[in-house]
Write a structure and sequence with these properties.
Helix content is 38%, strand content 21%. It is an alpha/beta fold. It has one domain: Leucine Aminopeptidase, subunit E, domain 1 (3-Layer(aba) Sandwich). The protein has a 6-stranded mixed beta sheet, with helices on both faces. The longest helix is centred in the middle third of the chain and has 18 residues. It binds ligand AR6. The site of ligand AR6 has 24 residues, from strand 2 and helix 1. This is O-acetyl-ADP-ribose deacetylase. Pfam families: Macro.
């Protein structure tokens, strides 16, 4: 077990409305936007986020942000200080990509620690457009955050609908 562990809270709602230090984006490798959470964050956060993403592509991630990694930008007009972009794996029936999904949560918390963020909101990474079954996505999210040593004090899982909320509630207990 980790020596420092954040408290876990569950909210049913929209991640773009969370007043936290850092909001995690379920991005793609291009870092240049998409649908789902990614679309909502860029829409509500405004063009400053995309400008930072373009700079990151030009400086550090010419080939894109690899799956399982995380990187921070401004949060623009969102009620947060930073957006931490991470790239979840696309679900595949013939291959176990769980470790990559766990890595998204771990790496996002590592970046949060670097920033000094104490409250972090996560969506259910990979469980939308990337097709990960919700119950398994919730299991990996909760187990990984609980096993990560971090100075983050609150991890808030922001679930879009009742099914997602139930899946996380079953895991948090
Ligand atoms: N707040 C909270 N949760 C949300 C919101 C919201 N505003 N919108 C959707 N969800 P997804 P992925 C839920 O598709 O599966 C993008 O095009 C949604 O119901 O956002 O990791 C990226 O650019 C689901 O449970 O992310 C990538 O190409 C969860 O958030 C790709 O989608 C994640 O769904 C990433 O796919």
């Amino acid at each position: 077990m980790s020596t420092r562990s954040p408290s876990l809270t569950l909210v049913q709602g929209d991640i773009t409305e969370q007043a936290v230090d850092a909001v995690v984006n379920a991005a793609n490798s291009s870092l240049l936007g998409g649908g789902g959470v990614d679309g909502a964050i860029h829409r509500r956060g405004g063009p400053e986020i995309l400008a930072d993403c373009r700079d990151l592509r030009a400086s550090r991630y010419g080939r894109g942000l690899p799956t399982g990694q995380a990187v921070a930008t401004t949060a623009g007009r969102l009620p947060a200080r930073w957006v931490i972009h991470t790239v979840g794996p696309v679900f595949a029936r013939n291959e176990d990509r769980s470790e990559l999904l766990a890595s998204c949560y771990r790496e996002s918390l590592r970046v949060a620690d670097e920033l000094g963020a104490r409250t972090v909101a996560f969506p259910a990474i990979s469980t939308g457009i990337y097709g990960w079954p919700m119950d398994d996505g919730a299991r990996i999210a909760v187990e990984t955050v609980r096993a990560t040593d971090t100075a983050v004090e609150e991890v808030r899982f922001v679930l879009f609908d009742a099914e997602a909320y139930e899946a996380f509630a079953n895991r948090v207990g």
